[in-house]
């Protein structure tokens, strides 16, 4: 089995709202750092890819301990170092799925901007699921799963159990009003069996090869569950 993991990041730095305003976004530090740290500790090599190989900025909210918790500075430092040491991100169109044991989709609001309809990611996810490869998505990362539509037009994750950032959490965060669409409700509309735990508390779901987490606090537990499955 490959000892390589692919983290697929959004390339979006702006989330356009229904009122025309522009909300600055980027990667959420904990959702990149915590899984990267867990995978590296377990002996995996981690690669990064995005649409066009674009490195999105850090979501500044994820550096604020008032919002992101007391470990915010550690997560920012780890994520920035990991991305710096990796160098230019791979372009999604150039990724060879055969190189990887698992794909991880972290959040920040970017995935609801670009990854949910990225054809290159969709192709990778359809193939990965068909091969039973481990797939993980956390917080807004499950939006990226929506890209996985097969040649018959079927969403391949329809009917699958999953967690994601809840509509309640979006309201509490202050970003539900004027959002073009809300993630958890949309996943349910598309046929996902979405479930949620208490707001901002760690909550993860496994459905076969699919591992999902509700929010930033779920990042490390999701990665740990993926690592255990890769060892099975």
TrEMBL record:
Species of origin: Lentzea fradiae
CDD domains tied to this protein: GATase1_Hsp31_like (cd03141)
GO biological process terms, semicolon-separated: methylglyoxal catabolic process to D-lactate via S-lactoyl-glutathione; proteolysis
Family: Belongs to the peptidase C56 family. HSP31-like subfamily.
Entry protein name: Putative intracellular protease/amidase
Molecular function (Gene Ontology), one example: peptidase activity
One GO location term (cellular component): cytoplasm
DJ-1/PfpI domain: residues covered: 31-227
Pfam families registered for this protein in UniProt: DJ-1_PfpI (PF01965)
InterPro entries in the cross-refs: Class_I_gatase-like, DJ-1/PfpI, Prot/Nucl_acid_deglycase
Classification via PANTHER family: GLUTATHIONE-INDEPENDENT GLYOXALASE HSP31-RELATED (PTHR48094:SF11), PROTEIN/NUCLEIC ACID DEGLYCASE DJ-1-RELATED (PTHR48094)
Keywords: Hydrolase, Lyase, Protease, Stress response
